Amino acid sequence: MIGVIGAGGHAKTAVAIIQRCCSNEKIVFFSDSSNSFFKDYQLFPADLHSLLSMQEKIHHWHIALGDIQKRKRFEKELTEHNLPLKTLVHPGSIIEKSVDIGHGSIVVGGAIINSCSTIGKCCIINTAATIDHDCSISDFVNIGPGCHLAGNVEVGKETDIGTGAIIIPGIKVGRNCKIGAGAVIISDIPEDSMAVGVPARIIRRI
Question: What positions does UniProt annotate as the active site of this protein (predicted)?
């Protein structure tokens, strides 16, 4: 049995991958809200008591939350109680053998991760995103749909790269940054920054 934390849009994506890769596994959800998509699944509250009450039945867990801080909080709770996180990789993605992916991350269909890149724990590599050679993606990073990261790019922890953003080779994006959809990053972005536009410019500190 796999326990999925979250029952929103991103959880739908996670379920689709689980059904493709682990078709014999039963899925249960932990969330304080839901919608009709999940009506045929068991749903429990998303609190520590509920998680621990199911730990004997659930062999793996996945945190299907787009919100970085919520994902970070649940990862801490699961890890502290030795509840193993499952990494999800869509069979329609392309990942070179030399790539290292941290626990609890998800790689969605159409994504490509090239040689010698590393992906931290609990990251989201979304639909059709490409990450070229020797990139370093830290923990709890969101790489939005259709993003393109050229070689040797570094992305700091808890950074959110918006849909369709492009980052040229060798750029460093700091921790806790927000990169707007469609932005083109041609120079380093310091931590705690929001950057938008073509070419991207920093519009404020966060």
Answer: 133
Which residues does the annotation place in the binding site for substrate?
A: 66
Whether 203 is covered by a domain: the verdict is: no
Per the structure, the count of domains in the chain is: 2
Do 82 and 131 lie in one domain? The reply is no
The bridge status of strand 178-179 relative to strand 172-173 is unpaired
pLDDT tens-digit series, residues 137-181:
999 999 999 999 999 999 999 999 999 999 999 999 999 999 999
Shared-domain flag, residues 79 and 94: no
Binding region: 66
pTM over 0.70: yes
Catalytic residue among 62, 81, 103, 133: 133
Contacts of 67 (CB under 8 A, 6+ apart): none
CB 164 within 8 Å of CB 181: yes
Identify the domain boundary among 43, 63, 86: 86
Residue 23 has pLDDT above 80, yes or no: no
Q: What are the tokens at 118?
A: 């590393």
Mark whether 51 and 104 lie in a shared domain.
no
Instruction: Determine whether 60 is an active site residue.
Output: no
